[in-house]
Every structure is written in C-alpha cells, then in structure tokens.
Amino acid sequence: MASESGLDLVEINAGKDMPVCKILDYGKYKFKAQKKAAEARKKQKTVDVKEIKMRPNIDTHDYEVKMRAINKFFDQGDKVKVTLRFRGREMAHQELGMQLLHKVKEETAGIAKVEFEPKLEGRQMIMILAPAASK
User: Fold this and answer.
1) pTM (2 d.p.)
2) Least CB-packed of 2, 17, 52, 126 within 10 Å?
3) Which of 115, 129, 127 has the alpha carbon at shortest distance from 85?
4) What is the phi/psi pair of residue 112, to 5°?
C-alpha cells in the first residue's frame, strides 16, 4: 500500500506482540520533528551561575554594590554563588565571614532561596542562592 501511494512504511512502535506501523512521507516527518525540536530549544531558558566574590571585612558601600548585582542576577533568573575569600589572619575570624553570609541570606530571603548553605572549603566560604520559584 505504501509503495503504491508513493509514501514510506515507518515502524512507530516495535512492540512484543504486534509492531505498529504508519504510512507517511518520512522526509516530511523528519523535517517537522526537526523544526519542533528547534522551536523547543529556542524557548528554553538556560540558568547560569553568576559568582560574587567578597572579603570578610567588606565596606558598607562595596557590600551594597554587590547586593545590587545579586538582585540584578535574580531578576534575570540566574543563580548566584557567593564566595567569601579569607587571606592571612582572617582565617582566625571565620565567624565574621559566616555573619556576612547570613546577612546576605537574610537580605535576599524574599527573592531567593538558599540552595547550598554556607560552608568553608579551604580558604573560602561558599553559598549558592537560587531565585525563588514564586515569580
């Protein structure tokens, strides 16, 4: 029947009992599937992880600038990795770094959720924030 009508016989589902086949133009079918996949890729939003680096003794103005950048990243739908770097004797005062990261966490509580709690890794403390799903 397929060769009489000038179309292809395509096996849709190779089941155990009975295979399912369709008579269709295979080239046209592949073209439509390719267009549909391209359209799905176009509408897809990739989530980037942006990094903000701070120091434990950051000044208030510098902190505010970093917070504005964090808020801008959340508006764009990106995740934010907050990295706090300790140098020299700052390692003796890790509690200051933890306080700073908790302050960031409190200020972004309305617009973001903590994906990775603050944790010390070597000489730096890392926390990952993701935009809240309520947008």
Assistant:
1) 0.66
2) 17
3) 127
4) -145, 160
